[in-house]
Amino acid sequence: MNAAPIYLDNNATTRVADEVLTAMLPYFTEQYGNPSSIHAFGNKVARALKEARVQVQQLLGAAHDSEIIFTSGGTESNNTAIRSALQAYPQRKRIITTVVEHPAVLNLCKALQQQGYRVDYLPVDRYGRIDLDLYRALLAPDVAIVSVMWANNETGTLFPVEEMAEMARAAGVLFHTDAVQAAGKIPIDLKHTAIDMLSLSGHKFHAPKGIGVLYVRRGVRFHPLLLGGHQERGRRAGTENSAAIVGLGVAAVLAREALPYEMTAVKNLRDRLEQGILAQVPNVLVMGDPVNRLPNTTNIAFEYIEGEAILLLLNQHGIAASSGSACTSGTLEPSHVMRAMGIPHTAAHGTIRFSLSRFNTEAEIDRVLEVVPEIVRKLRALSPFWPKHQEAA
Amino acid sequence: MWDYSEKVKDHFFNPRNAGVLDDANAIGEVGSLACGDALKLMLKIDPISERILDARFQTYGCGSAIASSSALTEMIKGKTIQEALAITNQDIADYLGGLPPEKMHCSVMGREALHAAIANYRGESWHDDHDEGTLICKCFGVSSRLIEETIRANGLTTVEEVTHYTKAGGGCTSCRTAIEEILARIASSREPQPAGKESAPAAPVLATRPLIEKIRRIEQELAAIRPLLARDHGDVELVDLQGQTIYLRLTGACSGCQLESITLSSIQARLQKALGERVRVVPVREISPAAAHCTP
Fold this sequence. Notes:
The complex is a heterodimer.
Chain A: E1 6-7, H1 18-24, H2 40-60, E2 68-71, H3 74-88, E3 94-98, H4 103-114, E4 118-122, H5 132-138, E5 143-147, H6 161-170, E6 174-178, E7 197-201, E8 212-216, H7 231-234, H8 242-280, E9 284-286, E10 297-302, H9 307-316, E11 319-320, E12 322-323, H10 326-329, H11 336-341, E13 351-355, H12 362-382, H13 385-392
Parallel strand pairs in A: 1-11, 3-4, 3-5, 5-6, 6-7
Antiparallel strand pairs in A: 2-8, 7-8, 9-10, 10-13, 12-13
Helix pairs in contact in A: 1-8, 2-8, 8-12, 9-12
Chain B: H1 6-13, E1 26-32, E2 37-45, E3 52-60, H2 63-76, H3 81-85, H4 89-95, H5 104-121, E4 135-137, E5 142-143, H6 144-154, H7 159-166, H8 176-189, H9 210-230, E6 234-242, E7 245-252, H10 260-275, E8 280-283
Parallel strand pairs in B: 7-8
Antiparallel strand pairs in B: 1-2, 2-3, 4-5, 6-7
């Protein structure tokens, strides 16, 4: 218990990279100018923001830096994108999304339903996959926008958003993707896709919290969510969060440089963890799409035990992970993602998500592999269902 | 993560009496895999003295479910059946130094398992919630009987509380109206009955009175604050309490004082500390009767 903590909850948030913090600090002290001001104080900051915009543009492979709008984070970007489309096409009263979106999209859609919009929620199969034929059938000229996440936060499952965007374009429908979990973890090259809008959040890839981006393809009709000053070319009012924007720019550069590492070394660590658990612990299931998946995420269901209890014991060993179990959130049912995939009830309450970053090491993974089987044994020894299962087996 | 008490953590990390009791003569099983928690309670009861000689448990569930089970076995060992049956879910929570409100259903599950085990010992058929009474919550299989008992025993007043204590209404939420009806029925039965009416149902004996207890604590704290206000020729009075909101009236020199907001925020901080929960203090001003309907 005295060993250094092991952080495997990077889909929740990440540590700010040292280079990011260093780059940000002057913008709290000597570089405090308002980028909109004419004087030298403002000018310097305006130039720094311009550089950060280009850095984010390069991470996303966007055609123009003017397509990048800085926001407060993923939630604001998602809200802006969907509401913008509804305002841009007032005669269209439909939205297509999925049942496994983040609450930042789902709860907005629920609120819009109350206002009279029709929302189609695409279901997913046992592996968290969408039926593209069903999607194609739903596309129609009265759809204002499609919003589908690039990667699912709980399982890491990747949706074929590039293909789905092409289909939307062919049907004359705007396509938005919530790429909060994907940006910085997989290659993105927007100029070669039909994606019209994309949300990302800085704190998921080692920038600070409170900064995000909405990408809006040039030529897409846009209506701002926040009205006020002329910042961000009138598309997002409010004095820019300059320090965080500079930090996001540096984080984007670092993420782009680290992408090959993410796709190989981080993925190998994730696979080592997953394979290790599958080899040592009976009655475990890997959640989500085993093939099309973020390189850093594994979500494992431990049958006959409950997720919060597992997390508490992991925490006792200094290991941070998360769970889709009901008990961790104070709700009474497993997460909407687990329910949507229809996973067996023996496993639904026992899912644990391990999400890695480039800061994790092999030694850390090996220590987790020492601890997990012991924790599962302890809880199964307490569970009334484990002996029943063993008798039956 | 939950803010569990040290006692909850201790009973979770070091559960007492976990495992199978081979010579058990009373077994109670409640909950299910689908519900997310389940408890199998095994007792050895001396048939002559009807004393519980030993108790063990197996629990599937979260930290507080395991801790509640462990606490329950410690509480009932050595007690007679009659003594054990007097234990309420609040007693289990108190033994653990309190449970988060959202986790109170863990203590209710403990009490249910105890009643099931004793019924099993007596050869009575203990009905699971699915069978007895009207099934109110279909997601978690909660009967009107359990909901009513829990409302009465814990003085619950809102649907949210009922969900925290019994899980009912925590799934598809379609039974919330039915729960509201039960709450309304019990609330009306708590109204004072006209004197001399023999047939009036006996007032339920509440194990705890959270609301009254809360008001008492607020009054105690205000009494301690009063001398400080009196120095500036002011006074404070409790007007109403609605959930987490405490309505206070500042009188004398305090009312309308420029420092009123500072006074109120320090009172709020003290009340928060005294009650151990987040509360909001709202000042109530003297108003003319004509404007009364405009107040919140």
